[in-house]
Queue: 4 jobs
Job 1
Amino acid sequence: MPQPPVPSRRAVLTGAGLTGVGALGATAADAAPLPVEKPAEAPIPGKASMIGVPYEQRDTVRIGLIGLGARGGSMASGWAAAPGTSIDAVCDIRADRATRTADALEKEGHPRPREFGGADTSFQEMLDAVELDLVYVATPWEFHYPHGKAALEAGANAVVELPVACEVDELWDLVATSEKTGRHLSLSENTCYGRNELAMMRASHAGLFGDLTNGHGAYLHDLRALMFDENYYTNHWRRTWHTTHNRSFYAMHGLGPVANAMDINRGDRITTIRATATAPKALADYREKFMPADHPSWADTYIKSDLITCLHDTELGRVIRTEHDVSSPRPYSRINSIGGTRGMFEDYVPVGESGARIYTEPDHGDDAWRPFDTYREEFDHWLWRTVGDDAEQNGGHGGIDYLLQWRFVQCIRLGLVPDIDVYDSTTWCAPVPLSEESINQGGAVLEMPDFTRGRWSEVRQGMDSHEKEMP
């Protein structure tokens, strides 16, 4: 019997076709569920939800930067290049980095920002002294939570590198602080602005793959050389995390794009997480082969597994798999895949110009993959059509860094709702601590927090924004 037509997300948002949660996917299966253990942390009561709340409109976005190492320093030029911005302050615990960044911005023709640095309290000095609309945080992971929270409490919006916080209670506190201050905190998840990721999302929302049933995402990146380079990660902070925690540090790199395609927090929600882990062997093996006897890494004992895999169930009966591996010799991949009742999409394969492949009915019927190229052209996001050339010239990672920066600035200048809100940000980061808890309990199934406090079923816009011009 032929299947009834699947309503597109656009039809749902405009009121045509089916309405409510059922319009976005199948109901959960009737099979007996695995026992689920709830997280110990209780939700912190919020004042007022930030769902659907626009930024306060600003003609010029006054920006402050906290953390100017390898990541933060490389992002400074992109923030300054976005139309209608002013980099008013830069800060790093190492004052010379603030001076270096200010010098570079001035050399590029921008006004010289105020410099703060030299102490672990310099970020607060900056927030107290300079009125800012947006604070970008790119410090080591353990500082993201206090720096992001301080930015909100100072009256600024915050864009924070991955993860926004490292513990569940910290994530809840960021939600509550955002709601209390009325300021937005967003994860700086550049992968959500990838051309393939956005086209995959738009094709999913248009119903190309039918009812979505599963998605896969990952951060698979051989970082061994950088982690053992004493000049790259200051005080080898990233390698140190591998000696203290066994968790999926960067699950959100793959989870974010899949969550966008599935409308997580916008009609569906992630309900559970369970994690598995391999033995931690690759970093010790690399050290054995390449590090001299006097290298500081010989004092390390690595406990972080080489490959951590997380499985998530959703309210609508879907399954999301994410993987994290930065220790093994392998080509880079974020997997980036989605599947449904009418076909599937797979990224990071050497097929066509797009590097992705697709199989979908009724277009295909011979069990043969096709290049994604023509579909990407059809479902290309307006950001890539209008800003793509500038992005590739001004930003790293193939342009996705600048596209993220440009869009956040545009949302503030127009007074729009952010593409990625605090509820998305905390949901995507919750697997960081929860993966470790699940592993420590032998792969136990844990409940994922609902940071929206029950509003996940509301169908609303996200990354699939309407085209607008930059003022």
Job 2
Amino acid sequence: MNDDLKSSDKDTTETYHIRIWTRFVLIMGACVLYILAEARFNQAYRGTIFENSFAQIKFVFKLLPLLAPLMFLPAIPVINLAVLGTQGLLLFIALGIGPDFTLLIPMQIPLLVAVTLQLQNIQAIFWILFSDGTILAALQPHNAWGEPVNAGTLYQGLLYTALTAIVSALFLLLKNQSNRLTALQAAVERLDRAYQKVVDANLDFQTYALFAREEAMEKERRRLAGELHDIIGYSLTNVIMLIQAAQIGKGDSEQTHAILEKARLHADESLREARQTLAALRTEAVERPRGANLFLKLTKTFQEVTGILINIDFANMPSELPAEVEKLLYRLIQEGLTNAFRHGKASEVHISFWYDRGNLTIRIRDNGRGETLETNEEGTLSSERPGIGLAGLREQVEQRGGRFQAGAVMGGFLLEATLPKECNNG
């Protein structure tokens, strides 16, 4: 549960960063268009219109980059006000220069992008129609600063409308596709989390099936052993007391015979009960895999379920291991495989064992994401993957006198633990 929350938080952080960078790129693009339009205006209109009108229009060009960041903020009221202000500035420029679409269309593109990507479709369409309508109205015959301004032709108006409609439609389509992809990605992530939970449940069930049955059998053996001890102890005590009674009798053979007969019957009954208890102890139990076979079964099942390629090298691993060591190694492998699948998104895992001077070392390496800011060279371990449950295993390994390391390496993630073959539980 905690791993899922941390993974969800991480995905949310990544999405937030992507949105920030997207807005930054859009703002920079809008500013570049406004700067280029201003340069184009300086080149085309300096000396061709009155200096006063030229200076005022140039001042308006300076205001447009200031409104650009506001149009791409994640706040609807701010966007609407910024768009309204930008449209007013564009209208002022259109009234001053007339139907120069080499300037008007590039300057209107940031506004169209902002409303189509940031606002709901209905709001976006309203601003598109409002922007086109006001610009087309400004291209009617009129005077600016006392001088007549050329009006646009019908053909120019239709061309302008078609171009702005195409640009708006493209960005609306882009937004809709982006929303659809986001929804699909969210669905895939939900399915992935559900799939990971199924894998975890499968592995937990395997652990329970392999070890819980053995522990239950051991408890039952202890119970039967205690019961057998009680039967034999009680029976022998009674038989001894009867024999002692016969030994100290007054020589009455019939009385002595009756006491011994009673002792014999009591011994027969006790022997029958003891045989029944021993028969229960002799019942052959279903054996579970041990050692290498146990680890092979775990990795084979995991590979079949997840599709991750798992290579395992037992090298000189002892054929028999203490139960506590075997169980801890099983948990280490299970945790390493689960983390390679869930957090590392690995496609391949390599597991190796090495036994040297009474110590058994296990290395679990995957080719997934190391989850660190920098990738270390081979053999150099850094911080553990965030959100994974290795702390408990580290504690268990160190309590038994072993060493534990886990961290990112070149091209993946490495988990390594060294355990004494004879565990020290102290």
Job 3
Amino acid sequence: MTSPSLSDYTTEFPVNDECLYLNHAAVAPWPERARIAVADFAAENTALGASRYPHWLTTENSLRRNLETLLDAEQGSVALVKNTSEALSFVAAGLSWQAGDVVVISDQEFPSNRIVWESLRSKGVQVVEVPLPWHDPEAALLSAIAQKPRLVSVSAVQYASGLTLDLLRIGAACRANGVLFCVDAIQAVGVLPFSVRAIQADFAMADGHKWLLGPEGLGFFYVRPDMMEQLQPVEFGWHMVADVGNYDRRDWSLAPDARRYECGSPNMLAAAALNASTGLLLEVGMERVATQAVTNVLYLRELLQDMGAVCLNPLLDQRPSGILTVNFMGKDNAQLHKLLMEAGVICAQRGGGIRLSPHFHTTREVLDDAADALECLLETL
């Protein structure tokens, strides 16, 4: 059976007919099937209440399997959480810390992957930020890992520059030195192939509202199975026990899998949407998703460089990502971003430039029209 071509998915993304959407690294538009899933859920709930709750649980379990597949994760190793910050907080609060422990991060991290570790300073934990030099982004990290800190936490792809880190290299160094490895995967999963097992991650997490094409308020938290006894739950409720649903039982134990990090009632509405969107990504195939997304980024870079744009990630060809951040020297980039948004070119101002982040479904017409709009706006500045 022949796989559908990427053009067959055009109708899944009406956003490409409504605006020039280049902001998947912030908040992504849903595919049509996610909208339908939410509408169906709402209609069913309105008409029947929770009478089909067992069916909702089937959807939730399907989502777990989708996420495990996208992450190349062990069965039962993925918990459903509200967002990346919550999952990072579970790691920070669930490990036992001693005064003098060291956490290593990079100097380019999104605040979520910095603030959570800084909160441990009250326990005597030291947070070390290391630079990511373009000639060897991992060099300082590897040097810090050799000093055997307690944990290293980095983003798979840096949110501002789009720099993709060599997680295989970092993970191998962590494992060789007995260092815990935590990965904020929000700018990678859904646009690039990702394997928690290959990179030897102990923890990984991401929201569903960026490259996974889902709603805000639901994401994943991966915990390597043999780390679950070390990472203690910090929230407690009916949903995280082994004998879930037995409300009369007075003695309880933790669920044997990652559900132990889910304390209460799940977000079934968001699960319906994210199950649909992750199903779409798996249907297309992550290799095809990544190839097309990267092709779109490189094509857009070529168009903008012809206008004098400077790409702020000189390693984009060797380390592709879904993020293109550019600067127009001598131009007011803040004003340019404002004008782009007003013109319907949806993007972000990050890292001292304009961040553009198309996905696999972004059409060539959208990229061309966005470049044309930008060229016209540059003439006004």
Job 4
Amino acid sequence: MTIDLRSDTVTKPSTEMLNAMMAAKVGDDVFREDPTVRELEERVAALFGMDRALFFPSGTMANQTAIKLHTQPGEQLICDKYAHVYNYESGGLSFNSGVSCKLIDGEKGMFTAQQVSDAINPSEYWYAKTSMVEIENTTNKGGGACWDFQEILNIKEVCIRHDLRFHLDGARIWNALVAKNESARQYGDIFDSISVCFSKGLGCPVGSILLGDEVKMQQALRIRKVFGGNMRQAGYLAAAALYALDNNMERLAEDHRKAKEIGAALGRLPVVKTIDPIETNIVIFELKDTIDELEFIKLLDSQKVQIIAMGGGKLRMVTHLDYTQTMHERLLAILSTITFDT
């Protein structure tokens, strides 16, 4: 039994999800004739209370499209230093949109409205024009932390005052909604655009959606084509997302419970230095300085447990749909036996 906790992207479709995919009615989505894609887009748009939704093959492409929609070359967006759009999208915001980032030194990937206000460039022409603010919920490098909703509202007020667009990278927004007992509509009322992912906590093989107003989403359709993101009979993938919305949302609480139990087990290990607070399904921890993190990873790998290093001495485990209770009990047993010469 291999226990893969590298990411919640490693899940494979269940038999029930595969059956739903194979039963999907499909068409050519480039002609906008795939009925299952349209059903998914309309359902998610209604869920968030936004005008339009557009299905994408990846969250990165959805985020990059949003940045392209809201900026012009030479402008600047504000985001956290840990933001996915800055760290893990291959420099796409500069390559695709010709924009730079003003990085905020936040806490666990989150920042305040005052920090946003302070980060806005002066209006003199020799500064890059600040045009956009981006946040991530939950925060990946912040250990799956959830934003305080009131602070999001405060940032929105800053955006309104300074005519800035506001984008949410909601790759794991489903985890945040379950953990905080919030609604998708709350977020749809605030943001100019939102990307949501189906291939993480919800267990789909592929797919994300970008949401926005009618005008922007018409432009997004063209940008998706430019980026090479048009798909033909994509309804097979959209059917997986529809199945996930019906069946895999509430169970996210189970992933959160298991992550917290892993954190408690790690906290009992003498080799562990710190554990980031755990709110959702991501566990980030640091070993004591005397312990080689690569040796720790190898030790777990020898027990068929896979985790990853996050850099800066941090290690990560992510619980997910395919991480069963049997695997969970096995992992906790393995952790209880770990010893290192220090």
